[in-house]
Amino acid sequence: MENQSSNSQNTWNPLNSNMDISKKFSIEAARSLLNLAKNHPCRNIHGHSFKVKIVVRGRVNKNTGFVMDFSEIDEAFKPLLDQLDHKYLNDVPGLENPSSENMCQWIWSKLKPKLPSLHKIVIKETESTSCSYKGDEDGSS
Is 125 a catalytic residue? Predict the structure, then answer.
């Protein structure tokens, strides 16, 4: 007969594991990537239906059963959504060159102070193109 206490030690417990939760947002916006070659199509004003995925990593709270309430992600991202949605991104301070890579870093820098457990930002321009960012390797961003 197997010892019950050793069996319970081998049971996976979500409270002892990091989990990722995510929330997706849609941003309709236009941009011009003016640093590209004059004949590059993305140098012209064009728009995207960006999909932004915010990923938070943490342990499950024993009381709530959540890593984080999704409404906290909504609240943290709302001011950024208001700055980006239905806007010309080149006019947003800090996004004068609004490539998806720069957008990821810009969103990260604004969101990380509000969401310390922020793990990753993913931006999809189209169904086949995306960019993800996990902060700088030294953890400073």
Answer: yes
